[in-house]
Structure formats: C-alpha cells, structure tokens
Design brief:
Strand content: 5-15%
Strand order of the largest sheet: 1-4-5-6-7
Order of helices and strands: HEHHEEHHEHEHHEE
Helix content: 25-40%
CATH topology of the largest domain: Rossmann fold
CATH superfamily of the largest domain: NAD(P)-binding Rossmann-like Domain
CATH architecture of the largest domain: 3-Layer(aba) Sandwich
Number of helices: 8
Distance between the termini: 35 Å
Largest sheet: 5 strands, mixed
C-alpha cells in the first residue's frame, strides 16, 4: 500500500516498542473514546491520517475472518497474559500518569518475570513488535529509498530504536525479562548485519539507545523507590527523542554548513550520542 501510494522515503524510525504487555482493560478508554468521536469535526489533516488507517483495515478484511469492520480494535491483545491474570479492578481507567497513560496497578508484570514464567502470547507479541515489524519495514520499504526515489543518491536513514537490554557486553545483566532482551538483541543484529549492505544505497542504518526514561517496575515498587530513595529516571521523553534523531539532525547540520567530509554513523549502536559496544 505504501509502495503504491508514495514515490520516496527518506527516513524510517522503528520506534514502535513494547516492553510490557498490558491487559485488555488498559486500552478500554481508547476504544470507548474512539466510538464516541465525531469524525466530521476533525481537521482535514486528521481525517487524511485516519483515511489511511481505514484503507489499511479494508485491505485486511478479506484476509481475516475475525475482522468484522474497520472499527475492530486491532490493537487489543487477543488474549490476556496467561501468567498474570488479574481482574479489571487492578487497572484504573480514570487515573493517568503525567504522560496521560493509564496507571497499571497490577502487583507484578513481565519486567520481573523469568523465562519459565512468561506467557507464550507475550513472548510472541514482544518479538513481533520489536523485531519482526522492523525487519518487514526495513526490507519491504527499501524500494522507496532506492529505485523509486527521485534522488537515489541522496542520504537516507534507518533508525532502529533499541535499548541496553539488547546489549551482550553489559556486565550487570539480570535474569528477568529475557524476551525483551532477546527482541532488542535481534534488532541490533539486523543493524550489525545489514547496515553495510544498505550503505551501498546511501541508506545509513544505526541502532540507538533512548536512555533510561521509564521505570518499568509495577507502580507500588516504583513508588516505594521514589519515596524511600528519591528516585526518578535520569532522562525524559525529550532526551530520548533527541538521541534518536541526532544521527539525522547532526548530518544535515553539517551539510548546511557546507561540510563535505562527514562521518555518518552506520552499522553501530549509539548510546548518549556516541558509539558503544554491542
């Protein structure tokens, strides 16, 4: 669909990450509000974006018997995490954090689980979102960055948003959340393997660590750490975005200055704006 609709693509940023699978109730406010929305009141730009989603859903309908109409909540997990089943009362649909995300009041989550405690459903979902989806996008959309691109010799970028969980060189590795570790390690290996190939087409592929911006522990444990130790993560979302975009911005800043001998990073893992060990 994208290949037929557009004639060029300059940047791919694989930022659709999932660390913890939430319950169905966690997303309920989104589906409720979606059904109440009067789409005729939305701006032209918003309607254009949604129209693209509707076209995508319509193409899926003939391929799946479970999708009855375009309002089907595709983001809803097909089954709850079968290792952490708690009632809807553990998820607050009215309490939101500073980022307007629902607060998950479950006493535990997959960030604390070991390999034999993880559900197959969550393992599959984390690998699909963090690893399989970037593989598909980076491979199938390459044509928009090469053959179909009006200026195939221009500089393009693929940013694979990763994390230190995917690092093999990290000394203090816990025995928890092996599925997220494996997903990010696989994403890093794609960068390590394919970046040299994509560079031949002037596509610069890197993995970037966002930095520590979220405390993934259950809310009770996170609040205790904050109260007892005055703990909060050292970075925020703006810091993370700056790190993700820096390879692109820094390159274009140098080009704007007229510099020609630019060392554009590729095939590496960037942390705090510099290369780090895999």
């Amino acid at each position: 669909m994208l290949i037929n609709k557009y004639d060029r693509l300059d940047f791919i940023i694989n930022n659709a990450c999932q660390t913890i699978q939430r319950t169905n109730e966690y997303y309920q406010h989104l589906f409720t509000n979606e059904k109440l929305t009067n789409y005729s009141l939305l701006s032209a730009d918003e309607q254009k974006i949604l129209d693209g989603n509707f076209q995508f859903y319509q193409q899926l309908i003939p391929c799946s018997n479970r999708i009855q109409d375009i309002s089907y909540p595709l983001a809803l997990p097909s089954t709850s995490n079968d290792m952490i089943v708690e009632t809807s009362s553990t998820i607050s649909n009215t309490s939101f954090d500073v980022n307007q995300q629902p607060i998950d009041f479950r006493s535990t989550n997959s960030w604390l689980l070991r390999l034999d405690e993880l559900s197959t459903n969550e393992i599959n979902e984390v690998l699909a979102i963090n690893t399989l989806a970037p593989f598909i996008l980076n491979s199938k959309l390459k044509i928009l960055m090469t053959e179909k691109h009006p200026n195939p010799d221009s500089i393009k970028f693929i940013i694979n948003v990763s994390a230190m969980e995917g690092s093999f060189s990290r000394v203090n590795k816990t025995d928890r959340h092996p599925h997220t570790n494996a997903a990010k390690a696989a994403l890093n290996m794609m960068t390590r393997t394919s970046a040299i190939d994509y560079k031949r087409s002037n596509i610069y592929m890197v993995s970037v660590d966002t930095g520590w911006i979220n405390d993934e522990k259950p809310i009770e444990k996170a609040m205790k750490a904050m109260i007892n130790h005055d703990f909060q993560t050292p970075l925020d979302e703006e810091d993370a975005a700056a790190r993700v975009l820096d390879p692109i911005i820094d390159t274009y800043r140098q080009l704007a200055k007229g510099e020609t001998n630019i060392n554009i990073p590729y095939g590496c893992f960037l942390k705090d704006y510099v290369k780090c060990d895999w």
